Amino acid sequence: MEPAQVVVIGSGIIGRSWAMVFAGGGLRVKLYDVVQPQITSALEYISKEMKELEKSGMLKGTLSAEKQLSLISGCMDLKTAIEGAVFIQECIPEKLELKKEIFGQLDLIVNNDVILSSSTSTLLPTKLFTGLKHVKQCIVAHPVNPPYYVPLVELVPHPETEPSTMDKTHALMKKVGQSPIRLTKEIDGFALNRLQYAVISEAWRLVGEGVVSPADLDLVMSDGLGMRYAFIGPFETMHLNAEGMTNYCEKYRGGMIHVLKTFGPVPDFSGETEQKISQAMSEKTPADPEHLKARRAWRDECLMGLAKLKKQMKSN
Fold first, then answer.
1. Which conformational region is residue 189 in: left (phi greater than 0), alpha (psi within -120 to 50 degrees), or beta?
2. What positions does the domain 3-hydroxyacyl-CoA dehydrogenase C-terminal occupy (predicted)?
3. What distance in Å separates the CA atoms of residue 259 and residue 113, rounded to the nearest whole number?
């Protein structure tokens, strides 16, 4: 049997990573963009990345890098790109009008079976898909950047999304090695960013009030909370840190409520605190393209190593 075909719309950082994810799952991938040099650059990047991952033993899937690369091709014609596709993942810049335009174009040419999915991290499905005749086939599949190294995908439906669209997308994401979660309805920030922004907000306040330095604050996460959150979430942490969840709440609900009531207003993320945090981060990693690229490469290598360790631990 021929492998199923998916289309990735946009060949930037997220689009390239998605193409690698899908090829790793044994799917044929059409990488669509409107600029040929951008497609060429993306294919060269993917080829180099996959070969390096194979050398280090960190390539996803059971196929060789050469076989996975043979599954990916570029395309500049939208109609040609979607022929035979079962799933389309949009990855263009985070601008509502641009995304609505591409989904409007797709709405005119897709059949009633293909799923239309967006990688958006901030735009609600009702903003993106309302009014499309294929709205039942539309869904947000928000990855964590970069999706090849971090498997979580948030699936967020439009109010008119068919349950089968959610089910098929969930199954596809599992097939290609991602970790999909289902939101039952849309909400600003989805789940991941609401949790992330809550942490960032309190981190900002603690630094702004002079309680802790930016560097030490980051250590609280990387060498503290983050270590256990890499394997279990906040609810299981509570459950294991007492004789079950009920016991934890009996012991700590009063203290939690007391501390939470001392939280200040939402910061404006500017001014003196911004300068203080920016200076501390730049001392660690200068904010120029060369240093940032190197640090991101280090981050991705760490994430891949962690993913490999988690996979080994789950199989034991």
1. left
2. 189-261
3. 50
